[in-house]
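Consider the subject:
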Amino acid sequence: MGDWTDLVGKVVDNLDILDANVHQPQTTANAVIPNAAGNVSNLRRWNPDYHHLWDTFRTYPREIPLVGGTLVTPNHLKYGVSWRFGGQYNDHGRYIRDAVAWVEVKGIGAAQSFTINADWREPEWEGTEEDPVAKIECYLTVTWEQFWMTEQRWAYHFTMLGDGSGNWVSGS
């Protein structure tokens, strides 16, 4: 029975995916698979589509009109996690592959700085030992600095499951 619930695959512990407005994408993906499988290519029935959980952050500062435009650019970021799911090993379980944290920067204003850190937890499982559902969690911490002082810091807790479901909660 333990062949399906002895899980491995987390390859990234902690990384900045946005560091002082410099995008540093997560290039190595996490997985949650049985140790006995060896690697994700030994699992079958992967869902071909990614599942995504995300949120956005926007500010609308007062515009200062200038000839040819404005002085202030609104902050606009989108960030979250994505993963593929559903893989089975010897017709058992539903596992996770290609789990990554990401950020899209659509605009950052002058004298503004953002850092987004991803902290991945150890793989777990839910359900029965006969048919486990893989689970991995990622905590994103967003730090917003304005004029070199921390304006705000908040965190997200993303939970991804091998059946494609998931959720997130935010807090400060």
Remarks:
- The mean pLDDT is 88.
- Residues 2-171 form one domain.
- The two ends are 40 Å apart (CA to CA).
- The chain has one domain: 2-171.
